[in-house]
Amino acid sequence: MTNEKRIQQVALERGIPSAGPYPWMRIANKVLGKLGVPVELHRRFDHHNEMVSAEQVVNFDLLMDEVLSRNITGDVVELGCYTGHTAAVLARMLHAHGDTRKLHVFDRFDIELGRVIGVREEFEERLRRVNVPMPIIHQGDVFGLTPEDLPSAIAFAHIDLGVGGEIALHERLVLHAMELVYPRLSKGGIIVLMDFHLPGVTVKGNDSNPGATKAATAFFADKPEKMRPLNGGPCSHGFVRKA
Ligand SMILES: C[S@@+](CC[C@H](N)C(=O)[O-])C[C@H]1O[C@@H](n2cnc3c(N)ncnc32)[C@H](O)[C@@H]1O
Fold it and tell me: With contact defined as beta carbons under 8 Å apart, do 75 and 140 qualify?
């Protein structure tokens, strides 16, 4: 199986149904292959309506697998869950591992991006569709949280708070999110930060919300750990492992 096909397969298994080429592209790619044309057609990522790329799902798979198989203490949290694309992926991974730790999600649920109306309803519906226990939902503004509002130990955190708005506001929000999560993150625990992007290093992802990288760079300036970029295909993200 080619690397590309494996990436699509993992994404489909984790509940990202739109991953992969359209059926007609598969036929066209077969014809191109038979003709010996060294070209393949791909679906263009829709940055308005899709929240996670197939490549990012594979990265989540590897990083979550590491945390779970090393038995890192704590729950899983997501700050910025919107309609649950990535929460469904994380919940399915916990379920696949037979792991009973809790998944906590935090969001205002009143920011309608793309085509969606009724964000929380859509979140709950998506999670029901993938047949996993409903995460613990914390509805409200992340700026209003203190570390005590998060689980006392965290093994894995995903921060995804970008809505394509004001860069300075997003930077302050991600900095605040880091201040909430980092003190509660167990040794060996992992934070994945959506939109972390290093020009010239990030392979080809968009720099959709530059406040994320600014906040992470400032936050980790005096810490022993540093964020590392991942290859998220059309989307940028990065991670840090607590020393
Ligand atoms: C890009 S979306 C998250 C996508 C989500 N991870 C998914 O896969 O569906 C960003 C989310 O951050 C949330 N958000 C932005 N600012 C927030 C704030 N101050 N407090 C709580 N949530 C916030 C928005 O409501 C939105 O749902």
Answer: no
